[in-house]
């Protein structure tokens, strides 16, 4: 029998509380989570730590569906958390969604 895992959705804020092409930080003892909003109002959540040297991704520049780390300019794909070529590495990602104008993140 396979176990089914149900995400623990946590309401973070209103979508309008995150500027387009911006981010918001959810502080947690186990590591902060950066919640990003793209120009088309998609939301993504990543551990707020670049896989390269641990830079705060929340302080990076959002462009398209990626964020550029403010420390060494690594480009991180928001949907997968993967560094874009030629860089290699991955930031932990969390499921995120918008419902009725509210942002939710699945924290396990």
Automatic annotation (TrEMBL):
| GO molecular function (one) | nitrite reductase [NAD(P)H] activity
Tell me which UniProt keywords the record has, alphabetically.
2Fe-2S, Iron, Iron-sulfur, Metal-binding, Nitrate assimilation, Oxidoreductase
Classification via Pfam families: Rieske
Class in the EC hierarchy, top level: oxidoreductase
Transmembrane residues, as ranges? Answer: none
The record's Gene Ontology biological-process terms are: nitrate assimilation
Q: Where is the Rieske domain?
A: 10-105
User: What EC number(s) are associated with this protein in UniProt?
Assistant: 1.7.1.4
Q: SUPFAM superfamilies this protein is in?
A: ISP domain
List, alphabetically, the NCBIfam families matched: nirD_assim_sml
The protein's name: Assimilatory nitrite reductase [NAD(P)H] small subunit
Give the organism, scientific name. Amantichitinum ursilacus
Gene that this sequence comes from = nasE
């Amino acid at each position: 029998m396979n176990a089914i895992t149900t995400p623990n959705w946590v309401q973070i804020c209103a979508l309008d509380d995150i500027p387009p092409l911006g981010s918001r930080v959810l502080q947690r003892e186990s590591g902060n989570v950066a919640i990003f909003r793209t120009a088309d109002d998609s939301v993504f959540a990543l551990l707020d730590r670049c896989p390269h040297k641990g830079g705060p991704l929340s302080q990076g520049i959002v462009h398209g569906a990626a964020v550029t780390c403010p420390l060494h300019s690594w480009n991180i794909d928001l949907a997968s958390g993967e560094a874009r070529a030629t860089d290699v590495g991955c930031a932990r990602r969390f499921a995120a969604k918008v419902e009725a104008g509210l942002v939710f993140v699945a924290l396990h």
